[in-house]
Amino acid sequence: MTWEYLETHDSADLARLGAAGWELVAVVQEGERSKYVFKRPVADLKHRFTQEQVEAFFAGRGHAGPERASALLNPHVASLLRRLGHTDWLIIPDKGFPIPPGVETVDLSLSADIPTVPQVIAAIEAAFPFDRLICAEELKRAAPRRFEEYQRIAGDRPVETFPHVVFKEIAARARGCLRSADSTPFGNVILVCG
Prior knowledge:
The protein is an alpha/beta fold. It has two domains: about 5-40, no CATH class; about 45-55 and about 60-194, RbsD-like domain (RbsD-like fold), CATH 3.40.1650. The chain has helices spanning about 15-20, 45-60, 75-85, 115-125, 140, 145-155, 165-170; strands spanning about 5-10, 25-30, 35-40, 90, 105, 130-135, 160, 175-180, 190-194. The strands form two sheets. It has a six-stranded mixed beta sheet with strand order 5-8-4-9-6-7.
């Protein structure tokens, strides 16, 4: 288990930090001041995302969006999206991404770059309100305009990046996949359902 630590000199923080899951592990006297040292386990990705979504919702930034029923014409896409729930992951990969075994996939690719990942996101967003977008760190260097486009698409929702090797590993946690025909290097995304 991995731990994260926090230090404060303000005793007024004690109750708030305790309620947020921090455990007081030490009180260190520094002259006339006391330093309070806290620790808590570092949550895995799915639990961390869930906690951030809860905090965002109660802070008024929730992205509940419209009803999930939508005008999607592809019945396979509509069915897949309706079966995904809160905190489930959806991969929207490019044409060459190795889709993990066991992940339900709807192949949307028609020809080179039809459709692209941003086009797929635009088509499904009303039926699949997402709370965060995950992409590969390498995208920033390989296709900076696409990375900027993903930031615009996400708006005030977090955009998280991981090395492509890690991205491929965590993609195995996805419950669904909509394969695009995108040819942008490292243009794959994972959307976390709100």
